[in-house]
Each structure stands twice: as C-alpha cells, then as structure tokens.
TrEMBL record:
Belongs to the GASA family. GO terms for biological process: gibberellic acid mediated signaling pathway. PANTHER family: EXTENSIN, PROLINE-RICH PROTEIN (PTHR23201), GIBBERELLIN-REGULATED PROTEIN 1-RELATED (PTHR23201:SF2). Pfam families: GASA. Keywords: Gibberellin signaling pathway, Signal. The keyword Signal applies. Residues 1-23 form the signal peptide. InterPro entries: GASA. This is Gibberellin-regulated protein 1.
C-alpha cells in the first residue's frame, strides 16, 4: 500500500514538472517570435522590392523566414529586429539572409 502511494505521488510530481517545462518552452517560443506563422511570401516581397537580384533575394529570404518565422522591416538592415534572421550565415561566414 505504501509503495502504491509513493508511486502515485511520484507520477503526479512528474506530470507537474513536465507541464511546467512545456509551458516554459511555449512561452519562450512566443517571446522569440515562433508563436504564430507569418506570411513569408508577402514579407519577402516587401524586403526584396529594391534588390538588384530579386529572385536570389526572394529565395534566400524565404529560406530564412521559414527557419526563423521572422523578417526584419524595410528593404535593408534592421537585422537587430530578428536575431535568428541575423544569425544565419553562409559557409564563408557572410550573412545568408538579405
């Protein structure tokens, strides 16, 4: 009888801990911009509208947006608005995202 009470108690504590971890991960994802999906197509059209190589810009922007769920505002710069977008680099160490 004592073993079953201890087992039930440990199971309840484990479930509580798992629930807290899940809630923490979800709130962290929302804080980092992963909460809701954005429309990458229209965000990248706006980002690449002044690019001299629009097809390349759209392809790179679409890849970055799909990974980060974020595109910085305006047509250039503002990488500080989206940390994930700014952190993606090519093999040469250059920024991958336009």
């Amino acid at each position: 009888m004592a073993i079953s009470k201890a087992l039930i108690t440990s199971l309840l504590i484990s479930l509580l801990v798992l629930q807290l971890v899940k809630a923490d991960v979800e709130s962290s994802n929302k804080k980092n911009g992963y909460g809701s999906k954005i429309d990458c197509g229209s965000a990248c059209i706006a980002r690449c509208k002044l690019s001299s190589r629009p097809n390349l810009c759209h392809r790179a922007c679409g890849t970055c947006c799909a990974r980060c769920n974020c595109v910085p505002p305006s047509t250039y710069g503002n990488h500080d608005k989206c940390e994930c977008y700014a952190s993606l680099t090519t093999h040469d160490g250059r920024r991958k995202c336009p």
